[in-house]
Amino acid sequence: MFQSLRFRLSAIFLAAVVLAGLVSSLIAIRLFQDYTQSQTLKELRREALGITEFYAEQAGINTFSAMNLERATGDKLFYIPVYGLDLLPGAKVGVGLRPVPAGAVNTEAVLAGKIRSFEFTPPGGKTRYVAVARPLKLGQQTFGAMVVAKPKAALHEGLYTVLARLAIAFAVGVALAAALAVYLSRRVTEPVLALTRAADRVAGGRYDVDLSQVRGGGEIGQLTKAFSQMAVRLGEAERMERNFLMSVSHELRTPLTAIRGHVAALSEGVIEDRELARQSLAVIAAEAGRLERLVGDVLDLAKLDAHRFTVLEEEVEMERLCEQAYSSFVEEARRRGIAYRQEIAARPTLVTDGDRVLQIITNLLANAFRWTPDGGRIELELGAENGSVSVVVRDTGPGIEAGDRDRIFRPFWSGDGSGTGLGLAIANELAQALGGSIELESTDGLGSRFTLLLPAERAPIAS
After folding, report:
1. What is the number of other CB atoms lying within 10 angstroms of the CB of residue 367?
2. DSSP string, 74-91
3. Which domains does the chain have, with CATH numbers?
4. Residues in Cβ contact with 229 at an 8 Å cutoff, skipping those fewer than 6 apart
């Protein structure tokens, strides 16, 4: 439980809310204390001003005492005397005033006319006071200073109410945050759990996962979409692999059967005629070459996938390569009645791997001849412009559907389920290894146009 994502998300969210609440409460308490103290000092300054003016007006009157003022204001009155002078000479209005203990405040500064706020504890007492001192003048003579004080504990009376309300608000906030944390963690973890179940299904070889019911936007939605695409591609890869194994098995079995039959006939003496024996040996050589090409394609693709494919750099006359590739299919074109022609619009020389370029062109032509019906048309064109050399193979086959135009360059994929599906995949990988690319234009029912583009300028060849 404690290791689950849902619990940890809820705990982290709740801990963040609690921490934010504590910090906010501490800040609120501190602000309240500062505000209370500021307001108390303002109040004490106003009272000190009023009381000193009152005492100055009451000089010589004997009917008022400090105790009356304390009851009226609710604060305590003290005084700071001037050595050798009475606070109010000949008057009894100062009855009840108590002196401030020495050292509690800078007496010289107060008597010089500065209003001072300070804290002190009266002699013999335990109560701590917050006080404000104001000088008392009669005419030009300073007779001392009046001190108005309030118990410091009174400043905290409102704090308890604030703390109680903060505690209630904090408890309600934590409860709401906990409910929200549980809800949000569930919203986050449900898609993750669904993806986990789907991953287990895919790991078991079942790729028909349905994630349409998984809720979530943003990153979760992107992850769900990517996972669905991955499952589809894995399923497709497995189907292509099965098709490849069946295709390769068939491709291997056919020449091996022919080779075995002719070898058996030769070894058992069934074929005695020299011409027939020569023909059998020719068939064996052709089928062996077919096997060699198939094995070579598989090895080439494996090397390209592992980035362990090495290409050479040499000066290559593209016209010669195109003529060599073109001539390889002249006889097949004649036999099948295909209008087969070559157009040379430029004669560039490249620094590249000639054998690999020839392999690419040959694979493109082989694909065209495979799909073009008898009596159709195939064209091979060589051109150069805009810093690139182009080799175009155009056919009048059935064309390629829009949904299959990305797939045809994938290994083991074949449009009709026959063949190994390696020719175009190897051509595309080789083109990229040589710093070029293969572009496809196709119209369903009218044919296709494959264009090999290679950089005209010398550049490092990828390997």
Report:
1. 21
2. SSEEEEEEPTT--SSTT-
3. 5-157 (3.30.450), 218-305 (1.10.287.130), 314-455 (3.30.565.10)
4. none
Q: How many residues does the chain have?
A: 463
- DSSP character string of 358-378: HHHHHHHHHHHHHHSPTT-EE
| CA atoms 307, 308, 313, 316: torsion sign | negative
Q: Does residue 410 surpass a pLDDT of 90?
A: no
In angstroms, how far is the first alpha carbon of the chain from the final one?
51
Structure tokens at 136: 């008392």
Residue 173 CA from chain centroid, whole number: 31
Of 413, 422, 424, 426, nearest in space to 243 by CA? 413
With residues binned 3-state (H G I as helix, E B as strand, rest as coil), the percentages for the chain, rounded to 5, are 55, 15, 30
352 Cβ neighbours under 8 A, 6+ residues apart: 311, 313, 314, 316, 434, 454, 461
**Which tens digit of pLDDT belongs to each residue from 315-324?**
999 999 999 9
Give CA–CA dist 155/430, Å, rounded: 85
